[in-house]
């Protein structure tokens, strides 16, 4: 017969020194046996613990916070497991009317409380969940052991997971050269059309021989990663929150040991359960904005989800006013890909290359009916003097873009003013076409 159970973590210590060992965790209030982290604390006794004695941290734990729904997972099309942050009261958790799902599923037909912690509930439906549909499940009138009812954190998404295929998940941001007191992080974006189970995904690097190595699982538990969501992998959420704005802590997933990502060049590899490559990025510190002298603590951000991962022009330094990194949220340098009707367009018409996150570079986007075109792109000032040969005999696909960072041929700042973008396009049959566009280079003072 189950008497009592807890699932502890070293984060319960709240003290980095004591969590290294030699100190016990003590319950604060024995009248709140179901309390989790809020009712446990590192011993304050000089011996490191109080076995057989009154706990050194004994006191009253005023638990007035209701349970929170953390996440949900569907092991198959008829079952859903709900995960809560603390044990539930058995009577309230077995009420079918407390759980409801949208898209016509309604209430579950069967409920099973999962021990020994009883912070998980298995729900069964008679109607099956459909692939590539994201459902929302809502919980009401469920209590914890102290009788506190669930509050605002009572709903989450769920769906049927599909194996991650190539380019479903992409590397979206990376900090490979952290501050002296910081840590690496890699942000991933789900650009697919279905949820992915993180338990079947891995992050790795390539060693000096170019072989995939240091493979690390993204999650030891079943956890869904939904389309349009961000996921940040790092060794410490606490360190990340200290140095960057992390608007939603649930987007951060701690890994005990990240693969090594050197400060100059390295490779990030995403793998699925079969060991197949989902996405891969071989980065270089030279991809940073050239006028940044100290690159420590500055993340590289992807500009467009739909453009190639390995294109250096699809990466830029995170903006200064965004804290030089945007883990778990939209990149400061994000540009939404939109098809163009013309053959060559530029945007924006006014840009300011000062790395403030607003129009830091000029995008010269092309669209051709077939591949095989070659381009030469030159930039002239208002007096007609050539200041930059941006592209020389560049082979173009059917669509893509080139980027200008506002620097001249010698990587020096250009004066403010009007500049002419002259593009010469030709194919192997000798057909040519010229495009001439005007752009204004500005800076914020």
Model description:
The chain is mostly beta strands. Helix content is 2%, strand content 35%. It has helices at 90-93, 237-243; strands spanning 25-27, 40-42, 69-76, 79-84, 99-101, 110-114, 120-124, 135-139, 155-158, 169-175, 185-190, 196-197, 202-206, 212-217, 224-225, 230-234, 252-254, 265-271, 277-284, 300-302, 315-317, 344-347, 350-351, 362-367, 374-381, 386-395, 399-404, 417-426, 432-441. The strands form 8 sheets. A 6-stranded mixed beta sheet has the order 17-16-11-10-20-21, with no helix packed on it. The model has no long low-confidence stretch (mean pLDDT 92).
Name a few traits of the molecule.
445 residues, mainly beta, 6-stranded mixed beta sheet, 5-stranded mixed beta sheet, 2 helices
Strands, helices and their partners?
Elements: E1 25-27, E2 40-42, E3 69-76, E4 79-84, H1 90-93, E5 99-101, E6 110-114, E7 120-124, E8 135-139, E9 155-158, E10 169-175, E11 185-190, E12 196-197, E13 202-206, E14 212-217, E15 224-225, E16 230-234, H2 237-243, E17 252-254, E18 265-271, E19 277-284, E20 300-302, E21 315-317, E22 344-347, E23 350-351, E24 362-367, E25 374-381, E26 386-395, E27 399-404, E28 417-426, E29 432-441
Parallel strand pairs: 16-17, 23-29
Antiparallel strand pairs: 1-2, 3-4, 4-7, 5-8, 6-7, 8-9, 10-11, 10-20, 11-16, 12-15, 13-14, 13-18, 18-19, 20-21, 22-24, 24-27, 25-26, 25-28, 28-29
Poorly predicted spans: none
Beta strand %: 25-35%
Global geometry? elongated
Strand order of the largest sheet: 17-16-11-10-20-21
Q: pLDDT average, as an integer?
A: 92
Helix content range of the residues, please? under 10%
Distance between the ends: 71 Å
The beta-strand count equals 29
Report the structural category: mainly beta
Kindly provide the radius of gyration, computed on alpha-carbon positions and rounded to a whole number of angstroms: 27 Å
By DSSP (H or I, 4+ residues per run), the number of helices equals: 2
Largest sheet: 6 strands, mixed
